[in-house]
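Q: Here's a chain of 397 amino acids. Please give me its 3D structure as tokens.
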Amino acid sequence: MNPNLDLLQPYPFEKLNQLKAGITPTQQGEHIALSIGEPKHQPPQFVLDTLANELGRVSNYAATKGLAELRSSISSWASQRFHLQGMDSERQVLPVNGTREAIFAFTQACIDGSKANAKVLMPNPFYQIYEGAAFLAGAEPVFLNCLKENDFIPDFEQVSEEQWQNCQLLFLCSPGNPTGAVLSSEQLQKLIALADEYDFIIASDECYSELYFDEDKAPTGLLQACSELGRHDFNRCMVFHSLSKRSNLPGLRSGFIAGDAELISKFLLYRTYHGCAMPVQTQLASVVAWQDEEHVKANRQLYRQKFDAVGSILNGVLDFQLPEASFYLWPRTPIDEQVFAKELFAQQNLTVLPGSYLGRHANGQNPGSQRVRMALVATLEECIEGAERIKHFVQGL
């Protein structure tokens, strides 16, 4: 077996289950889960109808590259959303079965194991696939703390010259999970310059990019920053997008990567052997999802309502700031975050995720310590009830 498997930590939700094991909540109300980032809003019916109508396509093998119709719809959406010019749907876009598998596979394809001291830089706290993918590719993760004093943006100033020199892949997550922080175009362009200087790839996880609160201030994407520099080849840059959060379709397992055509070409070769083509019926359902924006605007409005309501209830109760985007709150806890989560479940039958489970100890601290992640994915009524339970719990400490 691959010895690097021994480097993997238990997944955060496994740790959470262990934390809650044997506890019977005293709260008699229904359990409220704010721990997992699984969208609960109604999926678009027209997407479900298309999927049902095309189920007969299970008799067809799918090409790894995907249907031209799907690549074209993705290219059109990305070009409009991020103000891109001349995106080539044939060479710069590749459908994938959700960003999770794509992030993992892309890392395996990118890392050059023949080079010693290969590094993968990533935000801290982070989506756990970044770390696992790095370890299993034979690289060393380097954790960049995202702290309040730095507006929860990774502290790139702490990266040493040696780490930049050995960096093969830089993961970004903007909007951030769990912080909701958004990188600016200026910040992205500085990172692009560093990628040129030190010859590494930037992989930008943008799966929360459509969950923002100001309709006139959509988050900037990495390819948009490239385009503003006149770099329409997107050299060294790759973005990851998904229908899971944008369209409330986590079970469809549909997304795409886009960017540098040379990287896409090599990754397509990898995936041809990997055996992960998206089913044809899923591709056709994805086409209609990427072509519609009305359901996405309605989705943002639902989250807006929940953040307004929960923010109002918890204002002055917990130390937090509303995110720029995403569906997470990242409040500071008045006591140890694991004790907070455990006792909140025991007393209020409500689950949140200890922030330390999403981070690693780096530069003398785990930036998730004394914080919890709350995913406002439940109904408005459940989120309001959950906020009231949290308020009651904190006031009793």
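Q: Can you summarize the key feature?
A: The chain has two domains: 3-42+295-395, 59-292.
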